[in-house]
DNA sequence: TCATAACTGCAACTGTTTAACATAAAAATC
DNA sequence: GATTTTTATGTTAAACAGTTGCAGTTATGA
């Protein structure tokens, strides 16, 4: 169940958290804080904000910076540790404004200059998705 | 000269534009609108904003979304067209908060799902830079 | 010269993110 | 079970990035 998913990541399964989790699970695209706020009208924005922070911290979800000004969130895969080698590419469609996880497209590993240490990576294509072209 | 750089990209070389260009040329890291605003105290934020938009449109500079909430800008290479194959990786240091162009590290070409068409790509590592580790 | 276009400055406004503080609920301790 | 402590939520509002409208100024071109 969904509650189990939260407990697996050491997150106490409160009602709101379950709702947020389900909202993300039901979505085929990544959602911003305001997107979630519109779906869950009852819940307070600050609570949702903190819920997402908690989820991200516990690596239940990952955040995507798609250049729209609003960070989007999507569910991580089962054993994701959000390390560069775990992470996948995202695609932002400039027509429908949706951001998709390309879950099968892992981000290629590249070298970074000596002395630099990469903890995570964000890779987003911008263009037109299949439905919009 | 710097004015020539603007004219090469079909940008009329006004005083402010020359100042913004020089600010970016003098910087070893990518700069946000507010960064530039602090350096050029005289200039108005809206003017700087539109200047950066113009520069980006004319492909004199490129923008980087480094996850900090503020878009950063840096000078493009000479004949850059800002196509995915032109673009390079960026690195954001979470300690010093600076964002570096890894100009020699081109972004690896990957496939996108059929029907999708990528116009540009943003790839940013987050971690610790050489000076901070 | 005069009309037009381009650029700049000022002000205001939107939207996202975040903090401060108070309250409520849950968990732990006695 | 009552009390303390922790954790989660709600309310409010501030901070900040990005953006637009409008007026004034400067440059351009007929």
TrEMBL record, chains A, B:
InterPro entries: FUR, WH-like_DNA-bd_sf, WH_DNA-bd_sf. Coiled coil: none annotated. It holds the Pfam family FUR. It comes from the Bacteria. This is Transcriptional regulator. The lineage of its organism: Bacteria, Pseudomonadati, Bacteroidota, Cytophagia, Cytophagales.
